[in-house]
Specification:
The chain is mainly α. The chain is 76% helix and 0% strand. The two termini are 34 Å apart.
Length: 245
Amino acid sequence: SLFGALASRLVATGLLPWNAGGEGLFWCGAVALTPLVLYGWRALPAAILLAVAVEAISRSVPAAAIAAAAGDVAEAVVAYALISRLAPFDPRFRTQDDVQRFILFAAVVVPAVSGIVGIQFIGQHPDMAAFRLWFGWATADATGILMTVPMSLIWVTQARIRGPRSKEIAALACSACWLLFMVGWLTPGLALSIAVLAVIGLPFAFWGAIAFGRRGASLSSLLLAVALVGAARFGVMPFPAFQPQ
């Protein structure tokens, strides 16, 4: 929940610089989707409570928090319903088919539809600006989901087989601190250094995947994505042509 909430906030402000406060968008359904995938429809009440709690903490206007939580839950419900009916997958991601099915529906189809609904909700007329808004919305949504949901699913399902080692717990705690730093204390002066460190850190990500398997791979992916998205909050982006002018 913490990883999903922080990453969603980071993505909303990082990939969409014009949305500096993150208030104009529903956070992606990453927070609510994980419990549904893990425990099925019986986890819906917990997903709703979690979404409401996260949005209430982040938004000062109660009506906006409720609306955003409703958007979070609706997106997660649609994603889970499509996945369950059309492309069920093993949340342990044991095969490439599992990964492809998750990406297709949770990170492509649903964010694309969510973006269309979103621009209609805020009354954006169909034009190039609306397309850019849709693209930014869907991209930020998909990024938040890809950053956190696979990691959460892998760590929970792996824990049912083997509890995490002390080094893995330490890495998880350090990752949480890293997200907190990137959301609350990253400065423009550090953004370029963070982006460079993300590229330099690729070999360490490979080592994490080899040394700790799926846990290491998922956590390494999260850390690199957080570094790049966090730097994007201050205009340091690997694809500057996508930035709004």
